[in-house]
Amino acid sequence: MKPCDAPTMKDVAREAGVSLGTVSKVINGIPVGEQYRKRVEAATEKLGYQVNNYARGLKTNKTYCVALVMPSLHHPFFAVLVNELSEYLMQQGYRSLLMITNYDSLVEKKCFSLAQQNKIDGIIALTYSPDLDVDESISVVTIDRHISNHPCVSSDNFHGGELAAEKLMELGCKKLLFLHIGNVIVGEAEKRGPGFENACRTAGADYHSIWLTDQDTEAPFFRFLEEHIHNGKLEYDGIFCNSDGLGVRVCEFLKARGIRIPEDVQIIGYDGIVDYATGRYGCSTIVQPIAEMAQTAVNLLLNQQGTLAPRNTSLAVHYAPGGTTRD
Amino acid sequence: MKPCDAPTMKDVAREAGVSLGTVSKVINGIPVGEQYRKRVEAATEKLGYQVNNYARGLKTNKTYCVALVMPSLHHPFFAVLVNELSEYLMQQGYRSLLMITNYDSLVEKKCFSLAQQNKIDGIIALTYSPDLDVDESISVVTIDRHISNHPCVSSDNFHGGELAAEKLMELGCKKLLFLHIGNVIVGEAEKRGPGFENACRTAGADYHSIWLTDQDTEAPFFRFLEEHIHNGKLEYDGIFCNSDGLGVRVCEFLKARGIRIPEDVQIIGYDGIVDYATGRYGCSTIVQPIAEMAQTAVNLLLNQQGTLAPRNTSLAVHYAPGGTTRD
DNA sequence: TGTGTTATATATAACGTTTCACGAAGGAAA
DNA sequence: TTTCCTTCGTGAAACGTTATATATAACACA
Fold first, then answer.
1. What's the average model confidence in pLDDT over A268-275?
2. CB 3.0 to 4.6 Å from B205: which of A81, A298, B4, B200, for a disulfide?
3. Phi, psi at residue A204, to the nearest 5°?
4. How distant is the Cα of A163 from the closest Cα of chain B, in angstroms?
5. Is 0.90 topped by the overall pTM?
């Protein structure tokens, strides 16, 4: 690290032969006499002056900085989410402080405390701690999970589940299976299952659900599938997985056992993850509007005054075929 | 956004009945009389005091903040890189300011200026502007590309190319093909080709190279391949692609034309991108040590005093089979 | 007991901004 | 002219820290 002493407003003021207050006004776009403004602008240009955001933040208590607390960027959903959040924040004149928690409760808590210490203007978080509790003096918007009474943004998981069931039935599936592996904490994403089951019941369809938490491995899924293959045919002909990753793995598992996808079994996942290499979905899927979720979260955070924000905002999802269904 | 007035050092001092300086010492771990320290700690705890990093940064001119300037997080290489950078920085007590440039020169320049305005302690950047020029008063470490005289971290691209060629030959390939599509700017990654060609020449092997820039589409590659398929057989039996993504696409293209991978043609990519769903490589590949690159970049940045840092640091790569070669 | 020497807490001056009260300058109305 | 407004630049105080100089207490030694 090198020392880095930039010119200050005082230098600009001296150079331009005006007072500090005048320079401040010019910098902040407050109207000021023509000849003064010109002199200040010239001096600013000449010295290469740049505002010191630390001094400004100290004085105004406004830092134009938002902390993004995320579990990991190894998963494309999080990576794209952070990408969209950061880009949109920048467009709105905000900076983003990235904090990776690695799914660790302790780190999550540390991040929240660190964020406050940095006097950020707000936090957008996707967390895994069951007991995270952040008082309302600080602005927080969460994604997919609830923390205290802070507003939460998610896709319409319940309807996403319904959509998957309806689509499978529409495509001719008679015996449906729902596979869920996820957070021990019940968040918005855990409504996919109820949505799916609801649609099945409404239609009077034959279905079965298996729920696992991320404490478990996925082995029970595959054991179940194995047990329900008779004479090279799976007993179920439509499967809804609560993530695209799981969808792809289930697909691979069945193919390896000679079951044809989508001829024998149709599979729908959830998320809408696009493969970086092929540009395609890994499986047919319910697509979450990631960019829209990011923008909604940012807007909610930035316009949050008092306690007007709704505790929950869920955005429309849509179905997209990805080769594992017969459409 | 809500107002957020936290307790200040003055409050702690009053509560503890000591002076400001004493509180400062306790906060910064400077030895202080036992009973004083206890009183201050009690007061800190009671009021829930947290240091204001903006005030501290203003005074010390040290912000413990590093800007990460990256093109996008849609590509897993960048996403994982940012993940590792951010985690390691946090471990070292630094925060990371994420800036997404979307491969746009203008945005890249804006990010550099913004970063300085935020008085960050340094910048880690992966950029695409040909004319980016950052004076040396600010600490910068780049990845894969050179900016002015700032140190650059990359994987050993030249040797990676050699490795790919050697591996293909070792696996019995007689007629090799190298496909490159990349940056118009010549960065470290552009040494993969020369490495590959060098190994081919050394071994006296038959090879052909095609170079495209990212101004082009990949169409010429596929046209070339098409033209060299005769009677369902490709004229080449070993292909090195300068990225895993390209490797996967070439693989798909050939398979669609009835050519068997790896029986008829063997393919090696570059990067070592692990698919999030399967946990496997998309193709056989030269693996870049992303975590190590991240840590090296951070260490270089944080220990940068004067101009000791080497202009280039390249880290060892290794080959990993991924199903598109006969090993 | 007085002096010199540490040790350690306090008071104060920065750091680079913004903001606000003040006053000077320039018109307009009488 | 004089008076009163209005406009607009100036100077100083403040934001929450750290760092430096100063003051105070404590102790040892002659």
1. 98
2. B200
3. 65, 30
4. 23
5. yes
Give domain status of residue A236, yes or no.
Answer: yes
Structural domains of chain A, count: 3
* Residue B99: C-alpha distances to residues B69, B73, B91, B257 (Å): 5, 10, 20, 42
Local confidence band at B1 (pLDDT 50, 70, 90 cut-offs) = very low
pLDDT at A306 over 50: yes
Q: Is B317 exposed, middle or buried (0-12, 13-18, 19+ CB in 10 A)?
A: buried
Question: Does residue B106 register a pLDDT over 70?
Answer: yes
Structure tokens at A117: 């210490």
pLDDT at A1: 42
Name the residue with tokens 């080449």: B236
DSSP annotation of A281:
B
* B45 close contact with A: CB closer than 8 A: no
- Nearest nucleotide (CA of A7 to C1'): C16
Task: With respect to residue A27, please indicate whether it lies within any of the assigned structural domains.
Answer: yes
Same domain, yes or no: B162 and B285: yes
CA dist., res. B136 & res. A3, Å (int): 10
Mean pLDDT value of segment A200-223: 94
Tell me the torsion sign for CA atoms B167, B168, B171, B174: negative
> Which of A324, A296, A138, A301 minimizes the C-alpha distance to A240?
A324
d(CA B204, CA B233): 24
B18 touches strand C (CB under 7 A): yes
User: Which nucleotide C1' is nearest A32 CA?
Assistant: D8
Predicted confidence (pLDDT) at residue A4 exceeds the cutoff of 60: no
CA of A19 to C1' of D5 (A): 25
Together in a domain, A311 and A263: no
Q: How confident is the model at residue B258 (pLDDT cuts 50, 70, 90)?
A: very high
